[in-house]
Amino acid sequence: MPFARSASDRCYSSTAEPALLLYRLGARRGSVVVDCSPELAGCGVLAGMPLAEAQSLIHRACHGFALRRTRVGETTQVRHPAEPVAPHPHPSGATAGLSSSALSILEHDPTADRRALEQLAQWCHRFSPTVMLAEGMGERRQETGDRVRSRELRVQREARVHDAIWLEATGLAHLYGGEERMLHTLFREFRAAGWTVHLAMADSHAAAWALARFRASAARPLSTPPGSAAEMMANIPVEALQLSESATETLLALGLSELGQLERLPRAGLASRFGPEVIKQLDRLFCRRVEVLPAVKHCEPREAAFTFDAPLSDHDILLHVLAELFAELARRLVAERLGATWIRVNLDCSPAAPCQIDLRLFCPSAQAKHWLELATLQLERTRLSAAVSATCVRIEAVAPLEARQRELFSSGSRSHEHERLIGTLVDRLRSRLGHDALARVVLVPEALPERSYRILPTTGNRQRLRHAIAAAAGGALARPLALVAPGRPLRLTSGFDGAPASFHWGGTWHRVTRTWGPERIESGWWRGRLVRRDYYRVETEEGGQAWLFRRLDNGQWFLQGWFA
Amino acid sequence: MAAIVTFEARRRVVDQLAAEIGRCETARWNATEGNVVSSGCDALDRLMPRGGFARGSLVEWIAGCHGSGAMILALAVARAACGEEGYLAVIDSEKTFFPPAAAALGMRLQNMFLIRASRPFGSRRHASRAVASLTDSEGDVLWAADQAFRCEAVSAVLVQLDTLTSQTARRWQLAAEASRVLGLLVRPRRALKERAWSEARFLVQPRASNDNSRKAAITLVHARGSWGGKTIEVSIHANPNAKANVLAPGESPWAGGKLIKASIHDESETITTQHPPHRVRVVPPLARAAASA
Fold first, then answer.
1. Average pLDDT for chain B
2. Interchain contact, A455 vs B238, CB within 8 Å
3. Same domain for A482 and A545?
4. CA A190 from centre of chain
5. Torsion angle of alpha carbons A141, A146, A152, A155, nearest 10°?
6. How far is the alpha carbon of B279 from chain A, nearest alpha carbon, in Å?
7. Which of A71, A381, A414, A425 to mutate to test the interface with B (most CBs of B within 10 A)?
8. ipTM, 2 dp
């Protein structure tokens, strides 16, 4: 009898962690919420909701709790203000935890999510030799395709399906002293590792997932005796069928809210009314249909370590040892036809704090010489707190190596050799200057100049970066090449029509001989605080052109940039 | 009449000598196809001794004042050098480069790297011997530019910087020559006082315009193998005929003279600097003979 374990882990850890809200940039509705912590869900935040609406709800729930937005790389974080805010006299249970901790609003990264889930699945091999994950999100998206009307709700459902891990428990229960004990052992281990999980044990994969999602709680795992899954499934809501939104709405409109009600209806009628998908899903949930899930291959940790006889402070010897460790790991990767994209070097400087060096590569590489070059560049800028007593090199992420046949005659288009050279340049620059020092740019349809583009980290993935932007009044010369963000305050005199007449910059007064404008630029209401500015392109008597703006709320003038 | 003929003959001899000296100065240049990039503006190309901007060379654009348009011109040349698939590395140490404006000028952002060496200024000196007199931040900027110049896959490097030592300029020059990267350095007016190591140095001075376009006087202050002091006047238009206000990826902002119209302004106009880039001490034969005696 197959037992499946569904460890549906929504990754909110202890309450000391900040409340988390994930959003993504929608094509039509701006930023929308993808998922959030339970305390935020208690405030009324729902997946698919516009981000501004969610922020408004949180603001209202916390009763005047001020949100401060800071941009950190690609993420946007909203934190508590430095100044104390008087707490509400009667905070609700849902928001009490929120008001005592910080709130992080981050852009959802499905790829990072999936990678973290795969790492967790690797960790789960300590409990069972067979650990399974649902298929990739891209395949799922193609499968659901046009059947789903609401894009946001589709993303929400996918996130629910794909954040589950299944553990095959057949023949393992006796090792733990029974199924109940096994479940509780797993629960304790996850808690000790900092994960809050919903655990359930059932006769099939789908039943285990449905019970973990809709019945099990984060405080207590749920186990069903063998053969009793059908009874437990009777009270599960029909959302567990993962049908299209229209089909689910139709079922609910007909008063069919639980699986037990559907199970009692004639199967032929169900299939003709709702399609064969309903029957298929019912069979999966009631253990009448065998389901095959891809197992996660257990891989040995790719790491190599070396312990020195005595603490070492000589860089040359340290680099020599690192070269040996890199060579050993590179040999193993080449045998698997893999290349490293992320290598972490740990230097044990006890009794001082350990030092960590991350090597992130533009494209997969199995060349120890290249790794050593990057490590040398980083070590040049690293100050070790004490002599190194041991070192450990661990490959954190790999990708298949790309093998290409060499071309006898170089073609006119961009050759692969150029791609390799660019990758080498990117790796060197990032190793020396930091990961944020090198970036690519993508334009976003935002009116405010400082928000009209986003900095993307440089990776080997060839992304389709959008080129066109919303047409700007005035054409190619309407925006300055040198932008001062978010604007420098100016001393300025204006004429009778409100246009700038002269301004003070660089220690001298510049007389304005010509102006273009005003061009009014406002931020969208969904962006939170409203920003309204009147922009002027001005020409000074020297002939130089500048871009100035006046804030409409207080009339203050700023320099936004130079048409350099 | 005889005096006029003598003057013309003398002028011809001087031109021949200038051409000979220019050939000597640019002897290392390999005249293969694709080595010269046309900016799309004939008058600007004619200012250069090879009829365009040579790959593997450094070109300085001196901004006459704030907002002069020197960066626009440099970016237009970089855009021409990159073509459809070439990479442009922008060294943006001040974090002021505004990519949407570059995209509006026709630059393909997917082929552009923004290098922002932004370590805080500190008193710690750089470890490398070549940049030992610089702080960490300045050293990082120069090192990043040096790395970009050495990469053969990069078509052009756009750097905006105030000071440039002879040593660094020479390193960049050698790196650019080896990898055939076109280096475009945008510098403030005070850089005119420094010795020019670049292939060409332009001074861009804005002019008042009567319409929506930009006008600028471009003066060739110095060029290897050519006379300096020539000035042209260009006007940069915002492409009024285009349907969208943003240029298509393949559309050159200089195409067909629609955006930029240039005319030879006045060749007699010269720019005097406090320290001319090439100061040659000519010793008369009589003085030479006296010295040897």
1. 72
2. no
3. yes
4. 22
5. -20
6. 30
7. A425
8. 0.71
pLDDT of residue B4: 58
Q: How far is CA A250 from the centre of its chain?
A: 34
SS3 A522: strand
Clarify whether residues A274 and A318 are in a common domain. no
* Proportion of chain A above pLDDT 90, given as a percent: 6
Give the chain B residue whose CA is nearest to the CA of A487. Answer: B96
The answer on A364 and A315 residing in a single domain is yes
Q: For residue A418, which of B84, B153, B82 has the smallest C-alpha distance?
A: B153
Cα distance between residue A3 and residue A261, in whole Å:
25
Q: What is the pLDDT of residue A323?
A: 93
How far is it, in rounded angstroms, from Cα A547 to Cα A561?
5
Residues A327, A183, single domain; the answer is no
- Does A443 reside within a domain? no
Identify the weakest region by mean pLDDT among A8-22, A42-56, B89-103, B183-197.
A8-22
Distance of CA B25 to the CA centre of its chain: 17
CATH number at residue A395: 3.30.1490.100
**Do residues A84 and A130 both lie within one domain?**
no
> Could you tell me if residue A452 is inside a domain?
no
Contact B25, B31 (CB under 8 A): no
Domain match, A172 and A152 both: yes
Classify residue A2: in a domain, yes or no. no
Average pLDDT of the residues in A180-203: 86
Spatial separation of the C-alpha atoms in residues B11 and A5, rounded to whole Å = 94
pLDDT tens digit sequence for A213-264:
888 777 788 878 777 777 788 888 888 887 777 788 888 888 888 888 888 8
Residue A419 placed within a domain: no
Chains A & B: contacts with CB separation below 8 Å: 200
Q: Which of A65, A80, A101 is the last residue of a domain?
A: A101
Closest chain A residue to B207, measured at CA: A543
* Assigned token pair, B88: 């442009």
Q: In total, how many domains does chain A have?
A: 4
Predicted local confidence at residue B185, as pLDDT? 92
How confident is the model over A35-46, as a mean pLDDT?
81
B26 to chain A, minimum CA–CA distance in Å?
Answer: 28
Q: Which residues of A touch B152 (CB under 8 A)?
A: 418, 421
Nearest CA in chain A to B210: A514
Look-up of token digits 């654009």: B61
Partners of A469 on chain B (C-beta within 8 Å) are 100, 103-104, 246
At B183 the pLDDT is 92
The residue with greater pLDDT, B19 or A422, is A422
Instruction: Answer whether residue A279 shows pLDDT above 80.
Output: yes
Is residue A527 domain-shared with residue A404, that is, in the same domain?
no
Q: Do A443 and B216 touch (CB under 8 A)?
A: no
Residue A563 has pLDDT above 80, yes or no: yes
pLDDT at B259: 43
**Residue A544: closest C-alpha in chain B:** B67
Q: Which domain holds residue A127?
A: 111-285
Closest of A397, A324, A327 to residue A358, by C-alpha: A397
> Residues A93, A117: one domain?
no
pLDDT score for B5: 64
